[in-house]
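Try it yourself: sequence plus NAP, in.
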Amino acid sequence: MSASETTGRDADGDGLRGRVVLVTGSGNGLGAWIARASARRQARVVVNCRRDERRAGTLGAELQRTGGEALVCRADVTVFGEAQALVEEVLKAFGRIDVLVNTVGVFAWKPVAELEPAEWRSMMASNLDSVYNMSRLVIPHMRRNHFGRIVNLGAVGAERTVGHPKVSAYSAAKAAVIAFSKALALEEARCGITVNVVSPGVLVDGEESAHALDHTADRIPVGRPGAPEDVVRAVLFFCSPAADFLTGQVMSVAGGWRL
Ligand SMILES: NC(=O)c1ccc[n+]([C@@H]2O[C@H](COP(=O)([O-])OP(=O)(O)OC[C@H]3O[C@@H](n4cnc5c(N)ncnc54)[C@H](OP(=O)(O)O)[C@@H]3O)[C@@H](O)[C@H]2O)c1
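Structure, out:
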């Protein structure tokens, strides 16, 4: 890598050209959108899935067709040993990890009175353990390069520990992700590593009916629900040279919802 790339100040503006971008949970959903946007900027992208290797493989092939380099790795990132194998595979293929975007984080509706211990554990593992596992494993490599960008996916309102009925485990885990991210940002601030959180609100992916869209839009101050591209732009911003001085920050991408 050239000196300009090491500082993230290369010509593509987003600073992603040639960077190795690992996006957990990127076989579909927001992770796939982030993977596509990174590949379009000539990043070397790691697509990670837990089960659906065929879908992830299709995305990997698509990214390569758009000119990016892509590696598809199956690993359940809630399991430390599997996360470790994933990181080793990426280092073997690309030799470095510059950007980690932690998107894994399942959501479920259930009141506490009906929430089984296994369901609680699974929600915490998906939303929180995954972030610890991956951060713990990539930080030593980012430190060596004195460069790293970690972006974690939160949820709107989590920074204010807003409570929502039937979403106790998810809300608790996302609030913890924010506390974790701020602590890590402080620990790594002198190591060239920034850690930030993007918190989406209501998102639609274009498949909803016009009626559902109108109903959703009514609740959002800016008059429209969010789209995956809104979240992608925020994630890319935190990875860009323009955000060099931002760490430990939480950006709500929610059109003013739940301010
Ligand atoms: N979408 C929204 O409206 C919204 C709103 C607020 C916040 N968020 C947050 O944004 C993030 C992304 O949400 P999303 O809705 O796009 O996610 P999603 O559609 O549920 O993402 C699913 C992807 O994650 C993978 N995955 C799940 N568990 C995994 C694990 N343990 N290890 C590796 N991969 C795993 C799945 O792989 P397999 O299919 O192969 O298992 C799949 O590729 C989450 O953290 C979520 O909480 C989303």
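One thing you can check immediately is this: Residues 117-145 form the longest helix (29 residues).
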